[in-house]
Amino acid sequence: MSERENEIMIPAPVIAKEFGVTRRTINRWMNNKAMEFPIPAEINNRLFFARSQIE
Q1: pTM above 0.70?
Q2: How open is the CA angle 33-36-39, to the nearest 5 degrees?
Q3: Contact predicate 44/9, CB 8 Å
């Protein structure tokens, strides 16, 4: 198994709630290359972030 497969994956809406922002803001952060926001994994058309990349 790869390291990414062993990661705890958090869905985008949960990340948005933790940061106190909307899902749209998360999308803006992902599109802003200067922020270097982590690239999510797409699973069943949903975005998931590795917990270790968010903290």
Answers
A1: yes
A2: 95
A3: no
